[in-house]
Sequence to fold (145 residues):
Amino acid sequence: MKPLEIYTDGGCSGNPGPGGWAVVILDGDEESVLSGGEKLTTNNRMELTAVIEALQHIPSDRDAKVYTDSQYVKNGITGWIHTWRKNGWKTSAGKPVKNQDLWIRLRSLEEIRKVSWHWVKGHAGNRFNEEADALVQKEIKVFSR
Fold:
């Protein structure tokens, strides 16, 4: 079975401020979307939430190719998280890692399936990244009320 292709995005208006997250899941020719948001959040929390929501949504026996325009998410899950865990969830500067709760959740979801991580440039014409971004903007408007 081919891996699912998952495009994620998150953002907020103000940082912190009202935020949204979105996911586009491609399973062959089938496309499904998920989105949501929060009244008061940060951009990085929404980027992480998008990936978490995607991995929670798909069956645990399906491999996934995750595409994100967030270097924070890609670098965090593929590299930084290993050092943070060894250092008791402290940064190299000795400060607590921000969004530790979400990093722990993301790592636990990643451990039960094969996930490959891919960075895509945001706002550069990638159809599914643009679709996810448009959903994020709609959610931000909803949570701005």
Summary: The chain has four helices and five strands. The first helix runs from residue 43 to 57. The first strand starts at residue 4 and ends at 12. The mean pLDDT is 97.
